[in-house]
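Good day; I would like, with your permission, to put a structural problem before you. The record follows directly beneath this note:
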Amino acid sequence: MLWTWTARTGNSPAPPPPGVRSPPLPCTALDLANFTLILTTGLIVDARLDVRKLEDTITVLVKRKFPRAGARIALRNGVYEFQVPEEFGGDMPAVRFTAEHHVEAYRSDASRPQLPMDMPGLSTSSPTISKVPDLDEYFRSPGPTTIKDWIECKSPLLHIHVCVFEDLTFIGVTSPHAGFDVGTGILLDAWTRLINGADLDEIAGMNWDSEPFKRFAPVHSPLAVPKLVPRGLFDLPLFSQIRWVTQKLWNEFWDPEDVHVFVRVPKAFLADWKCQIMDQLKREGSTEWVGSSDILLAWWYKETLGHRANNETPMHIFIVANVRNKPIFSNLSDSESIKQYICNAVSFIPVPPFPTSTFNSESVGQLALRLRRAINAYNANPAGI
C-alpha cells in the first residue's frame, strides 16, 4: 500500500525554483513504488572507448531526446516531483558524468577482481554459477547514494561513470528507481545508435511532460479501482498473518546474509531447450509455443526450488511486464507509447498459483508453458492492464 502526504503549514505553498520548467512533474504512484532504491546497470566493453565521445553523445541525447533524464528530484510542499531545467549547461548539467583513466590493461594486475567473461567454464554450453566479482568501484564513483543525497545535491537523475583501461571500458549507469525501471534499455539503445553514427533526428525520444502517465498520479487519480484482488499474504486470516510475519523475521534473524552469485546461462543452452520443447509440442499436435525468457525462468525455478518435492505450499509468481509497448494509452499510438523512458511503467503478470512441489514434478517445458500461458492471457486483455 502506498501512502502519500502533503505538508500543511501556515505558510503559502513554496513555488518552483527559478530556471525550472513549469509546472514540475509530480512523481506518480508507479514512481513511488520502489522509491528508495538506487539502481546501477553495469556494462563491460572489450575495447578502450573514447570518453569524450561518450560524454558528448549522452549529453546531447538527454538535452534533445530525454530531457527528464536531466531532471532533479525534489520534495516541494510535501510532494516528490521531477524538476526539469529550462536550459542545460553550466551549473545545470544534463548528466552527471565522471570518468577514470588508466594507462595499463585491466588484466595486467592479478590482484584486480576476475571479470565475468574470464571465469573458468564460461566457454561451455552449460550454465555456470560462481561468486560475484566485486566491480563496484569501476561502475560507480563517489556521489549521491540515497534519495536524500539526490535531493540535497540537486544532481541530475542520470549518473554515468566510465572507467577506461587499455583493454576494456567499464560503463556504469546509475539513477534512483523513481526515475526509471526497465526503461533503461530504451536509453542504452538510443545512446548506442548515436555513438555508432545514427542521425539524432531519427532517434525516438520522449515528451518532457509525460502526459500519458498523469492518470497514475498519487492523488486525485480518476482511475477507479472497483475491487481489490487479494493475493498471497492478504488471503490469510489475522492469526496466520501474524504467524507469517513472525516466521519471516525469525528466519531473517538467523540467516541475515544475502549471498550474491553470478549466473551465466549461454544462449546455446536456451536454444537447445527451446528446440526440444517446441518439437515436443508439435508431436502433441499443439500450436502453443514458449520463448527463451520462459525457459530461462522455468530452468531457474527448477534449479532453486526443485528440491521441495513434497511441499504443497501455494506458489505465487509475478512476472515483471513493461507496459510501454502495450495499447493502453488512449492518446498515443502503439509506436509512440514506447518512447517514455523516465517513467516507471511496469506491471506484474500473475501466474495462477500452484503447489511448490510442481517445480520438482514438472519438466522445464511444462513450467515454461505455464508461464507463457499467463503472459499470453495478460497481453490479450488490454482493458485489464
Notes: The longest helix spans residues 238-254. The domain at 265-379 is CATH 3.30.559.10 (Chloramphenicol Acetyltransferase).
